[in-house]
Every structure is written in C-alpha cells, then in structure tokens.
Design goal:
This protein has about 240 residues and is mostly helical. It has helices at about 10-45, 50-60, 65-70, 75-95, 100-120, 120-135, 145-165, 170-195, 205-215, 220-225. It has 10 helices and no strands.
C-alpha cells in the first residue's frame, strides 16, 4: 500500500480522538476484570455476606468505584457469577470428555461440580444467591435467568447429549424433562452437602458424587424394594 493511499487521509484530530476512546475502553475493561478478581478474593476471605464497603476495602479502593462499574451489589454478583460459572462450565465439560459411558460422564460432571463449589463455598454462594432469590420471588415459578440460568441450560445440554445416544430413538420425551430434573437434584443435594458441617457421618466428596450419580441413574428404588419374604400389609378398613 502506498503512503499516499486515501485511507490515510483522516484528520489528525479525529484519529487522536478515536485512539483515546479505544485506549479508554481498553482501560475500563481491564479495570473491570481486576475489580471482579479482587471481589472474588474478598468474598472468598470475608464470606458470601460481605458488603460492598467491605469488598472495596479489601480491594484497596472505595465502594463508589464498585458502584460506578457494577451499579449495585446485584450487578457485582452477576459479573462475578459470569466469570465463576463460565469456569465451572468449562471444567465440567472437560471432565466429561474422557468418559466412556453416560454414567461415567455423569459421575465426572457431578464430581467436577462438587469440587469447584467446595473450593470456595463463599464465592459459590455469593454468585448463586441473587439468582436463587429472584427465582423464589417469581410467583410463576419461571426459569432462573442471567449467568446462572445460562449455566444450567448449558449443563442440561451436556448431560442430555450422552443420554440421547444411550437411550436411542423414541425417548426424546423422557430426555426433554430429565436433564433439568437431574440438575435440580444435583444442585439441591450438592448445596445441602456443602452446608453440612464436617463430621464422621458426612460423605466425602467422591462418595457424595457417586451417591448423587446413583440417584440419577438408578434412583432409590432398589433400597425400597421389599424382600421376597415380606408380605403386603393386610387392610382392616371396612369401606373408606
């Protein structure tokens, strides 16, 4: 290209202004990433109930800076959640890639979920609490929105894919409902496990992952099946 090319004939003032705008945008994006990282560290250390003021102090800045970038605490939770849940989603996908069977894939995904949530329970609670409250306040019982909703949708598709291959044609109606129900079981059981204090009776992470996977694949029916020697109860009711 010749230096006399007409594309180089932009005015110096315009080029300078565009350059400053681009640099400022880059600076804001980098600053936002830094604040998200600092907020994540602060919540990990201080707890999921940490206030904006406490988070800002731990980050070495003022809460007005956080309000300027995120609007309010819910905005900060959303921003941190987008980063954390994206990392969880990638880790769950990677864990399932080497599985040879659908059940092994489920176990790998449940294990990865429990491991990452357990790595920082404070951060996990911080990024899931606002979405959970939003869902609870929804009288229609609608789907969870935002980063958490996207996370659930992505994981639902991950676990549906091997099940389609395993169950074969004609089972789409079952597969359509099962992934979301499975996620509900995994999340509720996992969060109860996370909140349970350590004790000799609390399952370890691997044991809990295997138990959840067994519930997903087999249910609890085998444990409830009566033995062959057990007779059904005799009704003594006369009428209703």
């Amino acid at each position: 290209m010749n230096i006399s090319d007409s594309s180089l004939d932009a005015s110096p003032a315009g080029a300078s202004a565009d350059g400053r705008s681009a640099r400022w945008q880059t600076h804001r994006e980098e600053r936002r990433r830094q604040l998200i990282k600092q907020a994540r560290r602060a919540v990990h250390a201080l707890g999921s109930d940490a206030s904006m003021e406490e988070i800002a102090a731990a980050a070495g800045t003022s809460k007005s800076v956080f309000y300027r970038y995120f609007g309010d605490k819910a905005g900060l939770q959303q921003a941190v959640g987008e980063v954390v849940l994206d990392q969880m989603q990638r880790r769950i996908r990677e864990a399932a890639q080497s599985a040879l069977t659908p059940r092994e894939g489920l176990l790998a995904m449940v294990s990865a979920y429990l491991q990452m949530a357990d790595t920082s329970q404070n951060v996990y609670t911080f990024v899931t609490r606002s979405a959970a409250a939003e869902s609870a306040d929804n009288a229609a019982g609608g789907p969870v929105s935002g980063a958490l909703g996207h996370f659930f949708d992505a994981v639902a598709e991950m676990i549906a894919t091997p099940m389609r291959s395993h169950l074969g044609d004609g089972k789409e109606s079952v597969i359509g409902y099962w992934p979301k129900a499975a996620i509900g079981l995994v999340r509720n059981a996992g969060e109860q496990w996370l909140s349970t204090p350590d004790s000799p009776t609390k399952p370890g992470q691997e044991a809990m992952a295997r138990q959840i996977t067994a519930w997903l694949c087999v249910g609890i029916a085998p444990e409830l099946t009566p033995s062959s020697t057990t007779k059904p109860p005799v009704s003594t009711s006369k009428g209703y």
